[in-house]
Amino acid sequence: MEIVYFAGGCLWGVQAFVKTLPGVKFTEAGRANGTSRTLGGDYDGYVECVKTGFDPTVVTIRELMGYFFEIIDPYSLNKQGQDVGEKYRTGVYSEKQEHLKEAKAFLRERDDNELIVVEVLPLTNYVRSAEEHQDRLARCPNDYCHIPEEILNRYK
């Protein structure tokens, strides 16, 4: 199993969608690339993300990127739906350089690549979100989500 981190606005919807994808073995709501190692305190540069464990014999990074692009606006900087701010930026993060190379190649090969603002960076820090944010939409299906329900349920 391999791990990659996807940030696409509020993590509730991203987690609800990603966990339904072929080859995804587990998901966990969290924060990536902030400066602190705890959940306490003010915003410190982190981005809301979903830690994604996947089987690379079933799904590739490029395929995961294709799915990811179904739920984000790749041209919107620091905003997805009603979620606004740097912590809602879009990105892909990994500790494996090969994942980052594949994600960058996916972006580069798109006809609209000059318009895309999705960051692809090494993971420098990860903090698991509080329990109340884990699988939030499964527990509270009427909470706000920027991803339309028909997309959230596309691969169930």
Automatic annotation (TrEMBL):
Q: Which SUPFAM superfamilies match?
A: Peptide methionine sulfoxide reductase
The UniProt catalytic activity note for this protein reads: L-methionyl-[protein] + [thioredoxin]-disulfide + H2O = L-methionyl-(S)-S-oxide-[protein] + [thioredoxin]-dithiol; [thioredoxin]-disulfide + L-methionine + H2O = L-methionine (S)-S-oxide + [thioredoxin]-dithiol
Q: Where is the signal peptide?
A: none
Q: Where is the Peptide methionine sulphoxide reductase MsrA domain?
A: 4-146
Presence of the UniProt keyword Plastid in the record: no
Q: What class of enzyme is it?
A: oxidoreductase
Pfam families xref list: PMSR
Q: Which InterPro entries match?
A: Met_Sox_Rdtase_MsrA_dom, Met_Sox_Rdtase_MsrA_sf, MsrA_MetSO_reductase
Q: Is NADP among the key words of this record?
A: no
> Which residues are the active-site ones?
10
Q: Name one GO biological process term.
A: cellular response to oxidative stress
Cite the GO molecular-function annotations of the record.
L-methionine:thioredoxin-disulfide S-oxidoreductase activity; peptide-methionine (S)-S-oxide reductase activity
Q: What is its EC number?
A: 1.8.4.11
The UniProt entry's GO CC annotations, sorted and at most eight, read: cytoplasm
Keyword tags: Oxidoreductase
What is this protein's function?
A: Has an important function as a repair enzyme for proteins that have been inactivated by oxidation. Catalyzes the reversible oxidation-reduction of methionine sulfoxide in proteins to methionine.
The Swiss-Prot or TrEMBL record describes its family as follows: Belongs to the MsrA Met sulfoxide reductase family.
Q: Which NCBIfam families match?
A: PRK05528.1
Q: What is this protein called?
A: Peptide methionine sulfoxide reductase MsrA
Organism of derivation: Ureibacillus yapensis
